[in-house]
Design a protein that fits this description.
The structure holds two protein chains of two kinds.
Chain A: E1 2-10, E2 13-22, E3 28-32, H1 39-46, E4 54-59, E5 62-63, H2 68-74, E6 75-78, H3 90-100, H4 105-118, H5 134-148, E7 152-156, H6 164-179, E8 183-188, H7 191-197, E9 200-205, E10 208-213, H8 215-220, E11 226-232, H9 238-245, E12 250-253, E13 259-264, H10 267-281, E14 285-291, H11 295-303
Parallel strand pairs in A: 3-8, 3-9, 6-7, 7-8
Antiparallel strand pairs in A: 1-2, 1-4, 4-5, 9-10, 11-13, 11-14, 12-13
Chain B: H1 3-17, H2 19-43, H3 52-82, H4 84-89, H5 95-124, H6 130-153, H7 155-158, H8 162-178, H9 194-197, H10 201-212, H11 223-247
Helix pairs in contact in B: 1-5, 2-3, 2-5, 3-5, 3-6, 3-10, 5-6, 5-11, 6-10, 6-11, 10-11
Classes of the chains: A alpha/beta, B mainly alpha.
């Protein structure tokens, strides 16, 4: 899948600005961005529901503007808002969806039953859609794509409104879909979801592509990316603070003088030197905690804003 | 099954799922026809209209078809606002195929809502014959398609403002029904607004249906003209709708 200078404008608002990026076959690409960053517009354009203002996109070489029907044959989307039919049961909605995508009628029923069981919808099979909970409706939305098994599967915030157990199940099924050969695009503003699923991440901010890479490379791209928190038994001497400053990184000492937070490029190099310096000054270390930057930190680094902030 | 038919049958199954509404519409029709039709036929004494009870019954069917056509068009708008339309637009079916499925849905909805009342009216008035009923259904269904087409053609307004759409449709509906021959022949309509009545599709639909059911042609518009107008409205508005679906309507405006 590739976008070619893809832009979408609503009135005076640019929802997408000259997007150029590719998604490789068989990978999970996570589009990460806060609300209003253009994620949903991008997905809606890819699946031909919205028309781009300029530029285009190609799915398996098929142009979304010129040949929308063919694009829709190879892709499936799980919408952010569950698209159900109030007076239909989940199984009949899935049956209709499968028949529209020419799923073998012989296998269809088994596939629907299996998917519903895996997503814990089987117990609700006789409920009308309007009686499903928000989480169940959302899982049904995901089930449509899982039953369909498209070559390009698109999930727009697949686990919003879903409980933690349900989230894990959906994430595992999305990975399974990838392992079975589908290319997957997931839009989310949840860091944990992105970390769990992504082969690569595209960060979108105000309709513009900020950066795109694998998670380890994105994290490594942040200078001072590793965070080391050191606890001392007693307040440390000024000399040790000076010595540690000479090791590099950005140091923050707690007011009590016994908690140190250091943002360093490579914790594995910095920690041995820090322990050595501490030993030389007689300071006793009680705890050491090393953490990686989160994708929120990555987002903050590249956009200057937190994911939780409004665009 | 062909995807157009699959989609149409799924939509029809929604009407069946809401069958209480269907039974209620038949019951209301029977009530209206039985009470008001009977009362009106006693009040209207004219040598020109031999059986006003039947005349009224056909008019009531045209109103039912109009309501069904409006319902199909309004449903289209509601689908966009409630989020069903984006789902439909993501299915592997061309935009034209999508509209064809909606047209089939409209035809079946018209048959389901107007068919039993038609048979009931014909049977109750002792005029039941299969050929007449068949052609009356064709006439009513074509009219229903035209009405759906008109309502869908206006749907682009709803994407700007659902309130303006509702206001326009309510006003238009009132005018189309009042200024038509649904309940009275054109020759009975006062001269100051009879010229307006010839612009209502319901005038042509009513007169064509009455003609195929054997009413006095002297009270009706030329049936060939009526058939041409009803067919042209159906084809014209459906083509316009196809253009709107293809060029203008987008499933959702997303951030």
């Amino acid at each position: 899948m590739e976008t070619l200078s893809l832009s979408k404008r609503y009135g005076k608002t640019d929802a997408l600005r000259e997007l150029n990026f590719t998604v490789d076959e068989g990978e999970i690409m996570v589009i990460l961005g806060p609300n209003g960053s253009g994620k949903t517009t991008l997905l809606m354009t890819l699946c031909t529901i919205l028309k781009p203002t300029s530029g285009t996109a190609k799915v398996m070489g098929i142009d979304v503007v010129k040949d929308g029907t063919k694009v829709r044959e190879v892709m499936g989307i799980a919408f952010q808002e569950a698209r159900g039919f109030w007076r239909h049961k989940p199984s009949s909605i899935l049956k209709f969806h499968a028949s529209m995508f020419d799923i073998d009628p012989v296998k269809r029923q088994n596939l629907i039953e299996q998917t519903m069981k895996e997503l814990e919808l089987w117990e609700s099979r006789d409920k009308l859609f309007m009686h499903l909970s928000g989480g169940q409706a959302k899982r049904l939305e995901t089930a449509k794509v899982l039953v369909q098994r498209p070559k390009l599967a698109i999930f727009d915030e697949p686990t919003s409104q879903v409980d933690l157990r349900g989230k894990r199940k959906i994430w595992d099924k999305i990975r399974e879909l990838r392992d079975q050969g589908s290319t997957v695009i997931v839009a989310t503003n949840e860091v944990r979801e992105a970390e769990y699923l992504a082969d690569r991440v595209t960060i979108l901010h105000k309709g513009t592509l900020v950066v795109r890479d694998s998670i380890p490379k994105l994290k490594d791209a942040i200078a001072g990316g590793d965070v080391v928190e050191v606890g001392f038994e007693d307040p440390v001497a000024d000399k040790l603070v000076e010595d540690l400053k000479n090791l590099g990184g950005i140091l923050t000492m707690s007011p009590e003088g016994n908690q140190l937070r250091a943002n360093v490029s490579k914790a594995e190099d910095w920690v041995p030197r820090m322990t050595s310096a501490s030993y030389n000054t007689g300071a006793k270390i009680s705890t050491i905690k090393i953490t990686e930057p989160s994708l929120d930190d990555v987002f903050l680094h590249f956009t200057g804003k937190s994911l939780e902030e409004n665009p | 099954m062909n995807r157009v038919l699959t989609l149409a049958s799924f939509n029809v199954s929604q009407i069946v799922a809401e069958r209480a509404g269907l039974f209620l519409s038949w019951a209301l029709f029977a009530l209206q026809f039985g009470i008001f039709g009977s009362l009106m036929s006693h009040l209207v004494q004219s040598s020109k209209v031999q059986d006003y009870f039947f005349f009224y019954g056909v008019g009531l069917m045209v109103i039912t078809v109009f309501d069904t056509g409006s319902f199909v068009g309004r449903r289209f708008v509601e689908r966009a606002h409630e989020g069903e339309l984006p789902y439909y637009l993501s299915l592997p079916i061309s935009r034209r195929g999508f509209l064809e499925s909606q047209a089939i849905y409209g035809v079946v909805a018209t048959l389901l809502r107007a068919g039993p009342p038609l048979i009931g009216v014909l049977a109750f008035t002792g005029r039941l014959n299969l050929l007449g009923a068949f052609f009356a259904l064709i006439s009513l269904t074509t009219l229903g398609l035209g009405i759906s087409g008109i309502m869908i053609s206006f749907s682009f307004i709803a994407f700007k403002s659902i309130d303006i759409y509702n206001a326009i449709i309510a006003g238009l509906s009132a005018l189309l029904v009042r200024f038509s021959t649904v309940f009275y022949p054109l020759s009975f309509i006062p001269s100051f607004y009879s010229p307006i009545a010839v612009f209502s599709p319901l005038t042509y639909g009513s007169d064509l249906t009455r003609w195929v059911l054997g009413f006095d042609p002297n009270l009706l518009l030329n049936p060939i003209l009526a058939a041409v107008v009803v067919t042209a409205i159906a084809l014209g508005t459906l083509s316009l709708s196809a253009g709107i679906v293809d060029k203008i309507i987008e499933g959702v405006k997303a951030a």
